[in-house]
Amino acid sequence: MNNIHVQRANHRDTLDRRCSQGSIGQFCECSIGEKDERTLRASCQRHNGTECEGRGDCVCGRCQCHTTESGSSYHGDFCECDDEHCEKFQNKLCGGYEGSACQCKVSEEGCRTLNNTVCYDRGTCKCNRCECKEGYQHPRCHTCLGCPDPCQTKL
Predict the structure, then answer these.
(1) pTM (2 d.p.)
(2) Where are the chain's structural domains?
(3) Which residue in 41, 45, 89, 106 has its CB near the most CB atoms, within 10 A?
């Protein structure tokens, strides 16, 4: 059920729609709970880039992809692929994966840390896995080899 408050705005019967708290969208179709619109829009950006790679619209925190000039559709969570440019494996589109054999998921989920950084800023995310700078180790470059244990205090 959409939570829309409709009011007559002027003598031309133009309607002014305002959503109840917890809903957004042109027709209040998005239930956002405790999130705000900025948070939803951020979920439509890959690597803090352009919303839906500029190839779609962010609706309720998900990209709705446009069609290409040739008539095919953009694909992927962020509309990052199309039929002409995505990598293929065995003549099939990778769709959300990359690499010569589509072996790498296009995601940073496996690299995100508790403080929402990628690899604690001590490495890069490749193939949904942290590649740590020298001295740090997997899984998310948190531990420094040869560094003193920060959990032990000296009195």
Answers:
(1) 0.43
(2) 1-34
(3) 106
